[in-house]
Amino acid sequence: TGRRPRIFVTRRLPETVEARMATLFDASFNASDSPLSADQLVAALEGHEVLVSSITDRIDADLLGRLPAGVRLIAQFGNGVDNIDVEAAYRAGLTVTNTPSVLTEDTADMAVMLMLALPRRLVEGAGVLLGDEAWPGWAPTWMLGRRLRGKSLGIVGLGRIGTAVAARARAFGLSIHYFARDRRPPALEEMLEATWWPDLDAMLGAVDIVSLHTPHTRDTYHILSGERLARMRKDAYVVNVSRPELIDEKALVAEIRSGHLSGAALDVVEHRHGINPDLLSLARENRVILTAHMASATLEARVEMGETVIVNIRTFMDGHQPPHRVLPDGRR
Ligand code: 8YV
Q: Which ranges carry the D-isomer specific 2-hydroxyacid dehydrogenase NAD-binding domain (predicted)?
């Protein structure tokens, strides 16, 4: 049925995804392993209708204003779309889609993995046998961490991923608390035995672990501000597999340094101007675990993300509402 959609893909994707895209579409790829600059992206999009973007593409109002007129769809390979000015895209008549759901379980696994790794000193323990000094062997007070069972978990944002984290955390004996603007359905609360806190400050003072599962928006920037981190319980932990912008990193470092917080496990950190050296020092001292934005990095998730991008493109190009359209706040 007619011409094949002309798509441009900004990053290399798993082989099977690229192959399917090349079969279904008139597809061009950025063949390098690095993101493109704004100028390169604008030039590359000439003659294309669809931009397949990733978190490493900054699609702001300025770039949107410079896009070739034929571009009609921005199909993000990813769940979060905070790299895209969705409001400006909407006003420019462009459709934006994302790939939710398929990465939920893997991302939740990563959050729980970090939640376990931190108090049980996994990274530190794994390093001991590889160190320069010979391991002296077991002792009764060797490598003592803290028990997870019986602690309380405060989830910020009980959406798809937050819910999947809660379900796992229950199996580890954590009690579930959540902050969200709107209370979630009673059936979900009952299933998770979850307690709703309409006031984030109040929840922060009541839980042992805080895990962030909310997108980065204007409203959530530094949602864990210095003031809020100071409100957390002594010896509490922070886990973040969402976006670095949710935490005031400097304040987090200070709260760990002062001995108020026990530590943090972060899959996402600010790195545009290099990673905060104080955060790296804390990681070297094993008070912080830093991983390299890999919560959805399974082959399965990345292939399914690619397939979701394909479905979004096909339905849109066939003139239908794509299944995962992203609208600006307050629009339907
Ligand atoms: C991706 C993510 O690695 O989907 C997201 O929001 O952070 C990750 O799953 C990345 O965003 C790909 O664009």
A: 112-295
